[in-house]
Every structure is written in structure tokens, then in C-alpha cells.
Amino acid sequence: MSKEFQPNDVPVLHNYDGIQEYDNPLPGWWKWCFWISILFTPFYMMYFHSGAAGRSVDEQYQTSATENTRKQYAEIGDLAGDQETMTKFLKEPKWVGVGQSIFKANCVSCHAADGGGNVGPNLCDESFKHIKQLPDIIKVINEGVAGGAMPAWATRFSHKNDIILVSVYVASLRNSKPANPKAPDGSPIPAWPSE
Amino acid sequence: MSDVSSASLVNVGQHGDSQLSQNGDSQLKSATLPDHSSTMETFSYDDGIVRMFLTATIVWGLIATVVGLLVAFLLVMPSMASLLDIRISSMLSFGRLRPLHTNAAIFAFAGNAIFAAIYYSTQRLCKCRMWSDLLGRLHFWGWQVIIVAAAITLPLGITQSKEYAELEWPIDLAIAVVWLVFFGGNFLMTLWHRRERHMYVALWFYIATIVTVTVLHVFNNLVVPVGWFKSYSIYAGVQDALMQWWYGHNAVAFFLTTPFLGLMYYFLPKAAERPVFSYKLSIIHFWSLVFIYIWAGPHHLHYTALPEWASTLGMLFSLMLWMPSWGGMINGLLTLRGAWSKVTSDPVLKFFVVGITFYGMATFEGPLLSIKSVNALSHYTDWTIAHVHSGALGWNGFMIFGMAYWLLPRLYQTQLWSKSMADWHFWIGTIGILLYIVPIYAAGITQGLMWRAMDDLGRLQYPDFIETVQSIVPFWWARILGGALYIIGIVMLCLNATMTWLNRPSRYEVPVYSAPKLSQNYRDVAIPPSKLEGMPVLDAAATLSQFSAMDWHRRWERFPIRFTLLTTLAVIIASLFEIIPTFLIRSNIPTIASVKPYTPLELAGRDIYVSEGCYNCHSQMIRPMIAETQRYGEYSKAGESIYDHPFQWGSRRIGPDLAREGGKQSSFWHWTHFENPSKFSPGSVMPSYVHLLEEKLHFGEIQKRVEAAHFLGAPYDQELTQADSMAQLQAAAIAAEIIAQGGPVAFSGHLIKDSTAIALIAYLQRLGKDLFRVETPPPKTVEPEPPVAQPNPVAVTYTPRQN
Q: Global pTM?
């Protein structure tokens, strides 16, 4: 405790029900911190609210969104949702992994964490209802099927690559062994093309 | 209370202290003396009312914390209540009971405590009995009835859904009357009749409390009633959010801070028998606290759809609030100089020291959390819960316990039954607080970091929400242990209070005091000249130095009405600076043409969402951050909640955000999920809402709700006459969907289209979809085809921003 708090207190002024008061000066550090917190205000306001470009929350978000998309897809650019692309990416574990991340964020509550199916169908078996070839998966995810049982996801992703890669992941689940597979639904279709 | 107060006389004549205070000023500063010719008056204090409030404090303190323990258990064992009858178990959900816990802790436990403190200290600081014993009793019983009404209505799902303002409008009216008329009126009349010339700092804080809580309560609870048990806030979306957190934050300020500072200023120097450290600091931190606090509310809404300037003001004023708050802490702790040896032996002072220390910690943490970038991490997490509990358990709880142990022997005119048990209470309570807050801080920071963690490829590292919940469940268990210890401490207080009460004398002594009536012809002590007077400085500098000596404030302290008006002015001006622009400047809430009002069935579903307290676990406000938009979808816009009376943005994500829930799952998924959440989400902490499937919706009640929403600005047309049939049609369509998707036709003896769950599903399926809705040309058919019967057209042309 600094010396200004030691016994040379400014004497008692008042007395209320036996409670007395000193009139000690304000601690210096207290005054300084208070002034600094007040003086900080105009500078902060000027920096963030003077209208300079790139400083609003929305602009900062747009910048980081651009940056994040670049991080995600600079390597592969905009994918075409065709059979050829999907076949190619099915062989790239890194991008199948990206698809898995999207799957975990959005799909597991209906199709289960391992794709074995829950309220939604089992994605790991050989039977499909609305799918004949790889790009059909993209179509089903985009537009939904069965009167909303599978909802349309077209507006829910920030990049259309997301839907293509999650479709690739779904395709990769075929012939995997889920813990609690739901009974097959639909009819068997030919294997995915290898080239 | 069985205690019969006797009027035995212990005439102490001129109260020893009054001599001092009458002459105190004049002895120190040469000035004209107040005349002493006024007639002496005799009076005694009403301690019966203090005994009543103190008893209520202790009883409600136990109940509030036990309900807190119950909701803590419900988080780790969500299906705990499912073995009970469904009518009971539907009331025992976290969503319905969490408001009961917060309301009981704030308004029942802390509320009764501040009344006890104010009734005890005001009489003594004014040398005057409370103006009306009857108003005091009306206040006491009125307040207890309000608490009981809260304890009944909240579990029944009768709620306005605004945090700490959940109680419905009839109870709100009762609160206004009891608070302002019975309590405020009695208090101000006591000030008016006081025999002490100047008002002590504790009274300033009481005045600020009474005035500001009234203003906050009235303006946040303006509603349009729909029957006795339901109402719609007159504000919507952004404006409602601003009003709510203007209220919510200042409920913390003016219900849990200012009255407790008043309490501290009276009971701490009393217990320590030391003078207050600095009168000047009292003045400065009082006015700065009152003026600055009121601006800080928007820091609860950082990164939401609230206009950014308001959020910035909230942050900057929160930072400015740090020192005014610490002014109170300093004045408390430095008052103990020379009395620290007493702290080791006196449990009262121990409670006060730790309580004030927690105040200092919480009021440092508050500004810290208000910094936008810190808030980006902490918001929606348990960090906030840890923060409020260090304030509530540490500051409010311990100040109350300290006061209680000081008051018990004085009120019951006997020794405290067991001082060592009070010591035990202190230690076990302190350990309890630490065991509560440390794990919950860890939980909050853990979950916040998991939510935002991204990998090298710009992907969420923990995309599965449940994984982030499961990782903090062990912390929730540790919290239960801490909370239980705190409750054991309160049980010790109950025992100690009961035993002390049993040892009371058969008749209480009622000392009679005497003091002169305040004379009318008082002249103020002259303001001493500036120390710079006559020195070679500008006149302005001398004036400034004279001003900063604060002697002018002394005069204000003898005018209670003027002081009250000045306080009111400080609070209202600050409020208007934020409220008026938010309401009047259109660009603050850009409208979105595709956002339409809810259909009648969706409106009914929304009322169920409110009633079940879903907002206690689910936010509806996606912030503009990559980790959020990756997880939940496009961030929320101000124009999206313009029909939300009240807003449902929420403040805590125990479950995922629902702002873009519409169309994300099938209706059958929702149906089954309400029945058994963990069927689809293993590890989910959401309880079963099977009672929504079992209960039938009262379609007949929808009409008047539609009318109320229309009155508040929803552009309805045929809904105004056909709400019932439109709702029936939409319910049938959703039921048909569910059946087609594999759901049952009937449930619990009725068709599923009549279930309340269908309305709630209708609401959830609508959430967040309007932003992407493409305007379709109006159908040419004359036959009124309810827009509800067709699902909202899927956005076909909305293209997400491509980078």
C-alpha cells in the first residue's frame, strides 16, 4: 500500500448513525485509469466509425470469408459437379476428408455419424432410391427429395464445392461397414465408375 | 413472526452520534451554525419489518440455490424427470426452470436482502422510523405473493421470455405497484421526514435503485396482452433486444450492484468500526457509476444484428465503468485499514472482504467481456455463467451473509447461536464458489474454442455440435459439487438463524431515541475558496480546482427530491441516447422485402417455443464469423426479426443455433426428435418433449393472437378472419408430410395434426428461410388458397456469395 494511504488521513467530516467518513484524495492510479478509459473512446470511435473502408464488422467478415474460401479451394478452384470430377476426387483422401467434415456438420442427425442411416436412409449399402450415377447425389442434396424428407440444401452452403465434396464423401461411404446399418431401401445400382 | 414487540423504554436521550453530526460540519469549517432551538422529537425504529425481510431472504436463498442445483442436474441428466407423470415432468425441464432459478436468486433472495438492508439502515441514517408501518407490511407481503406467483407461473410455461423479465403482465403490474408505491413511496416519505440533515452515501445508492429499477421495469415490460397469461412485447427484433439488454444489464446494475453498495456503505463500517475511506471517492464513483452503467447494455449484443454503433457504445462505456466500479471496491477495502486484525476473527468481516473482492473481480471481468474480440469467444458460452455466478454467489451472496450474521444478534437481541458455524459457513461457501466457477470458466472457454477451431483447410475442427457439449459435461458435474457445498453453507445459516431466533427474549426491547426536528432555516456551510485563489493562475483554473474539491455536493445531499430528480435525469438521458436512434433511424434496421409475418399456425408454434423456454438453450442469432456461418449458415440480418415480438435471439448455446433451422430437417425428424432427442443425436442433453406430441393445440385461441400481432404491425389480411381454418389447413399439410415420411397418423388418441408439436414444427420450419425466399407472382385463382398450405418456395435463384 502506498504511503498516501497511511495514517495522515484527511480528518473526519461527517457522522451518520456512528459511521464517520474521511475525505481522503482519490488514489492516483484510479484517476489515471479512469481518464484513460474515457480518452480511449474518441480514438476507438474514430477508428471504427469514421467510415473508413474495411473496418465495419460486415466488411471484416467479407474479408475473412474470402480468405477462408481461398484457404479451402484455392488449390482446386471451382469444381464442376460432373461424374468425371467426382470420380477423380473420390481417390483423394484429403478432399474426401473435407467432405466428411461437411457431412459431420450437417448430415449426421438423419444419416448417423457413420452413414448407417437413422431417420434418413443407409448410405453405406448398395441400394439407392433416387440415385443412378454420381452426380445424382449432388442433385438430391441441392433440391431435396420425397417431399422434404430429404430437405433441399442449395442455399445452405457458402460455396458450391461444399455440396460436390460432401457428395463425394457420401459416394465414398458405399460398401463401408456402419455400426447399426438400416435395412436397404430402393434398388441396387451399378458400382461407381473407376475412371 | 410470533415476536410481540414491546414498547419498553430505553430512553437514550439525545443520541450520542447526533450531537456529532449536528455539529460536525461547523466544528471543522467555520460557518453559520444551524439553530438548536427546534423541538426535540422522540421515535423508535421498526425492526419487525427487518426481521420479516431477513427471514424471507434466508428462506428464499435456500430455495433459489436448490432450484439452481436442480437445473444443474437437469443439464447432466436431462431425462431425470421422465419417470414422473408427464404433467409434472413437462414442468421439470431446464427451459422452464432456469428462469425460476434466476428470478428466485435475483428477486427473492437478493431482493428481500436489499429490503432488509434498506429498512434497517434507512431508519437509522435518517433518525426516523419508516414513514408507514402499513406500507412496509404491504410491501413485504406483496413481494412474497409476487415471488410465489412467479414460482407457480414459470414452471407452467407462462412467460414473456425476456431474461429476468419473464413474469407475465399481471405480475408485472403488481411488481410496479409494490415496488414504486409501497416501497418507493414509503422510502421517499421517510427521507422527507428525516431528522438527519444530510443524506449518507448509502441513501444515494438506495435512491438510484428505486428510481432506475422502476424505469427499467416499466419500459421493458410494455406489452399487448392476449388474455391473462400471455402477451406480446410492443417492441420487435432489434429494438426489443436493445430494450431487453438495456433492462437486463441494468437489472444487474441497479438491483445487484447499487443497493449492495448501499448495504456495504452501511454495514461494513458498522461491523469494522472504522470510518469510510473517502467521501470524495463516494461522490465520484456514485455519479459515474449511475451515469455510465446505463449505456453498457448493448455489450450483451456484440456481433448480433444490433447496429454496430450501439454495440460500440456498449463496449466503450463498459470500459469506462471499470474504475467507477472499483471505486466502490476501494472504498470498501480501504475502510478496513486498521481493522484487518478483526477480519481474522469476525465472520461478518470475512464475508464482506471476500464479497467485495468478488465484486472487484466481477467488475474487472465485465469490462473485459465487453471488449468485442473477447466477447466473440465468450458469448453464448458458460463463461458468462461463470461470470454471473462469481458476482451472484461471491458479491451478492457473501454481502448478504455478512449482513445476516451482523443483524441476527441485533434483531433478536441475543448472541449469535454459533459463531464457529458462521466461520464454517464462510469457508465452505468460499470453497463452493471456487468449485463452481473454476470448472465453468474452463467449460466456457473450452466450448468457445471448440466452436471456433478451424483446420488448415478452412474447415470446422469440431463440426458436430454434440461433441462440443459432451466435452464440457464433466465440468458440469464438478459445478454440481461446488453448488452443493454453497447450499450446505446456506443450510448452516438457516440453522444458525433459527437457533438464534429461539434464544430471543420474550419481549423485544424497543429503544426510544430523540432528536431535534430539522429546522427550516438551515444555511449551508460556505464552500471554501480554492487553494489556488490568489495564485498566479487563470480564474478558470481556480474555479475548476474549487469544483473538483466537491464541496458543492454537500448541498445536494440535503435535498432528497432534487437528488432523486438528478439521479433520474442521469439515468434517463443516458438511456435516450441509445434508445431514440435505434427506434427512429430507419437505416438501423434495413427492411428485407422477402421477410413476411408468421402464418397463424407458425405464430402459435412460436408461442410454444417461448412457453417452453427454448431460448434458454438455443440462440437464433448467427454472428458474422466464419466459424458460425460454416456451422449454421448465412449470418442473421436485422430485417429478419421485425415480426418477432419478443425477439428470440437467446444468450446461451447449450444446443445449436436455430436461426436457419427452417427446412434443415424433415418435419418427421422434428416430430421424432421431440419425442426422443437422443434417438438422432446420441449424447444430446435435450430432454424429451413428448408432452407436445400428446397435447392438443387449441386452434380457437389463435385468432386473438393473430389480432394482437396485427395490432403490433404484422400486415395480415385474411388471417384476421380465418386464422383458425388457415392454421388447421397448414397443420394438416405438415401432418401429411410427417405421415408420408414414415410418421404415425395418430398419437395418444388423436390425429397428429392436432398436436401442439405440429405448430412448433411449423414455426421451426419457417425459421431463417425468408431471406432466401424468391417472390412468386400472386396466384391468379380467386379461391383463397392459404399461403400456409404450400411450403415456402425453395430458393432457386439465391446464389451464395462466391469468392
A: 0.90
